[in-house]
Design brief:
By secondary structure, the chain is α+β, with helices and mostly antiparallel strands. It has twelve helices and 14 strands. The protein has four domains: 83 residues, no CATH class; 33 residues; 112 residues, Cupredoxins -  blue copper proteins (Immunoglobulin-like), CATH 2.60.40; 95 residues, Cupredoxins -  blue copper proteins (Immunoglobulin-like, Sandwich), CATH 2.60.40.420. One of its GO terms (molecular function) is copper ion binding.
Length: 414
């Protein structure tokens, strides 16, 4: 028998199911009459198939294997149920960018020696990028892969696109310049608002946060010119005011929404901020850092008034109690039951643990904005403060009516 030009003599004379698959014909005959057997093909009847025809069978198998190994994609739907997700532009753009970004790693796998044919490996790369065959049987153009010129559909030309990195460098440069400019503008703005404009003498006020009330101290040029008030801060309009914030117990947060932002008040540290009211009015403030059970009832008022009215209010605070107030019946009750914690300017009462009650009648609220300042509410607050503001540091004071009425009348004149 003459040797086939594409096969050795040993392989052409040896029978097997692999040759029978490509033979011109085969007969089935059982050895014992019951089970069929595959017969050896006859060389005279039909010559063996050339290897190019074998490749026509092998390549579709390798192509299917390459497609099976490729990751799934939702860009090209093949069923009605998959069309709900495929037309989403953002999903398709992300999927395509992800595939193109991974193309270098796929190209590097191309150099590995595997059992797949070169054409099947190239088909796997094209399928990984989302490509396939077009109507003419040529590989579709995707990413940086294209069919080679000359009509050879089995070869792929890899072209290097350097323009992508150039756009990345431009984007990074523009973003860096924008961020640096924004940081410089922010620092300049913070520096401008950190201090008031020149030409105006600022007013300094020390504000201390307690559980659960605020204390404002107005320093004077002399020791007698310093006075304190509670939960009500008076400021002149069109005058910058520097607030020095301190905390006596826990962390608080000072916030007047219509005048300035929030500033933390931390024990053992002095924070400062500037406020300036352009129009007269009453501005509500609030502690914005949880500081205990009565955090919600720790409000205060900022009263902005013209400079003349502010000067008159300051003189009233410095004047203190009127002449003869120390001999009033109400003062005797105050000195015996309240002077350990509270103070009234111009008297011997000098308590420092509670709010200063000088000119209490001029304040609009009691207990840091909890109650309106009326004689009935004042008597209720003195008798049962825990019922009004549970957790307050002030204990309940059980006074008989003969002492409560003179005490309320005395405090309402202050």
């Amino acid at each position: 028998m003459a040797a086939h030009p594409y096969r050795s003599t040993s392989r052409s004379t040896k029978a097997g199911p692999r040759e029978c698959r490509h033979g011109a014909g085969h007969s089935r005959k059982g050895r014992s009459g019951s089970s069929p057997a595959i017969s050896r093909p006859s060389a005279a009847a039909s010559p063996p198939k050339p290897i190019t025809q074998v490749c026509r069978v092998t390549l579709p198998m390798n192509e299917a294997r390459a497609r099976a190994r490729a990751p799934p994609t939702a860009i090209r739907a093949r069923a009605p149920g998959a069309t709900n997700d495929s037309p989403v532009p953002a999903h398709g753009a992300f999927d395509l960018s992800h595939r193109v970004r991974r193309s270098p790693s796929v190209l590097s796998r191309r150099r590995r020696s595997d059992r797949r044919s070169p054409r099947a490996a190239r088909l796997g790369i094209a399928h990984h990028l989302g490509g396939g065959r077009n109507r003419r049987g040529r590989l579709a153009r995707w990413g940086n892969l294209a069919t080679a010129p000359g009509g050879d559909a089995d070869r792929l030309a890899v072209r290097r696109d350097a323009g992508g990195m150039r756009w990345i460098y431009i984007g990074v440069s523009v973003s860096t310049v924008a961020l640096i400019a924004s940081a410089i503008w922010t620092l300049l703005t913070l520096r401008a608002v950190a201090q008031p404009g020149g030409g105006v003498t600022p007013l300094a006020i020390s504000v201390t946060g307690h559980q659960w009330w605020w204390e404002a101290t107005y320093p004077g040029a002399e020791p007698d010119g310093t006075f304190r008030t509670a939960s009500e801060i008076h400021i002149p309009t069109n005058v910058p005011v520097r607030l020095e914030l301190r905390a006596d117990d826990v962390i608080h947060s000072f916030w007047v929404p219509k005048l300035a932002g929030k500033t933390d008040v931390i024990p053992g540290r002095v924070n400062s901020m500037w406020i300036e009211a352009r129009t007269p009015g009453v501005y509500r403030g609030q502690c914005m850092e949880y500081c205990g059970v009565e955090h919600a009832l720790m409000a205060f008022r900022v009263v902005a008034e013209p400079p003349a009215q502010f000067a008159a209010w300051r003189r009233r605070q410095l004047a203190g109690a009127s002449t003869g107030a120390s001999i009033a019946p109400g003062y005797r009750v105050f000195a015996r039951r309240c002077s350990a914690c509270h103070a009234i300017r111009g008297t011997e009462s000098g308590g420092i643990y509670g709010p200063d009650l000088t000119n209490l009648s001029g304040r609009a609220t009691l207990a840091s904005g909890t109650l309106p300042n009326t004689p009935a509410n004042l008597a209720r607050w003195i008798a049962h403060p825990q019922a009004v503001k549970p957790g307050a540091r002030m204990p309940d004071i059980d006074l008989p009516p003969g002492e409560m009425q003179p005490l309320v009348a005395y405090l309402e004149t202050r």
